[in-house]
Amino acid sequence: MTKKLVLIIILALLSKMNFAQELPTIRATSKIIDVRLGNKFYKSSGFISPEKKPDILSTSNLGEKVTLYTDVDSISVTIEPTTKFDFVILLNDTIKAYAQIKYKPSYLQILQTAAKYNFNDNRAIPKFEYQEKSDPNLIILRKEFKLDSIAGTGGEELKIINLLHWVHNLIPHNGNGENPAIKNALSMIKECKRDNRGLNCRGLASVLNECYLSLGIKSRFVTCMPKDTIFSDCHVINTVYLEGKKKWVWIDPTNDAYVMDEKGELLGIQEVRERLLTNKPLILNPDANWNHKSSVTKEDYLYNYMAKNLYRFQCILRSEYNSETWAKGKQFTYVELLPLDAFQQKPDKSINKNENAGTTSTNYKTNNPTLFWQTP
């Protein structure tokens, strides 16, 4: 190693040491901290954690002043898009806890960067299909659970909402559990009743989807996903077609939820997404809830949780009874809608074979929402 290279390394190390020494420092004798974000004050909202290097406090509130308080000191920074403010908390004059206040975009802000689609994308995707209510299994489902009576004799919107409430009340949501191996409404309803168990969001949407199909109502279950291609959480809801108004509407059996505009008109998934992007009013039905244990609020559900999960969408091509039960020789076909800045735009069509299960899965991609939300 040359003397010149050794000197460069030493200078770099000294620079880092000086930088660490020059970090703003505040003192503390207690690990408990308070935080003020703009006009909101959060008492005892965190703990000093020397083991984290650094311990990061993230906020999406651009332009707001963030102040962190220890029991004897405080430090503040105004949040900008480039904010990454490093400092030290000196605990009991001996322990250094490295900390950082940084800007991190909210899920809504991330979604608002994904507004663009390509309405001229003409990559070939097959037409979505919907099983007829004359299918023998759908007839059994309709009769066994008296779904005509549950739907009632009102208009189609009321029927759709009545069935939503029925499934929500019938089967609890269990987001931590796997769905049964046999994934059709008849089997899953009976298994949940027998074993006193629930279903995850995909299972609930699948059950409700088949109930709608059994009454001749066009419906799909939609996997709503975040921007990241690797994720730990997504959400599955239903898109249900109103024949009278020639439009799709948002129906969520997990949260007994539907969404309206300021005039009380039911909105579809794409409409809700557009209104989030353009800050137009959204109204959540007031009785939306999770398992009748907690209310669902518009702010948390739409502007946070679903803003995360409205980045891209996937639907099975043929909406039918028992559509996702694995069986040897079965073929699954899905279509995915992506904004232009989403990851993994290619390939246009992919085919994956599961040799162990004997199944084949085909996935199409499009940037064209008109094709994805096509009229039945």
UniProtKB/TrEMBL annotation:
Annotated signal peptide: 1-20
UniProt-recorded name of the protein: Transglutaminase-like putative cysteine protease
Gene3D superfamilies, alphabetized: 3.10.620.30
Organism: Pedobacter nutrimenti
Region ranges (Disordered): 348-376
One Pfam family linked to the record: Transglut_core
Domain Transglutaminase-like: 155-253
Molecular function in Gene Ontology: peptidase activity
Keywords from the UniProt entry: Hydrolase, Protease, Signal
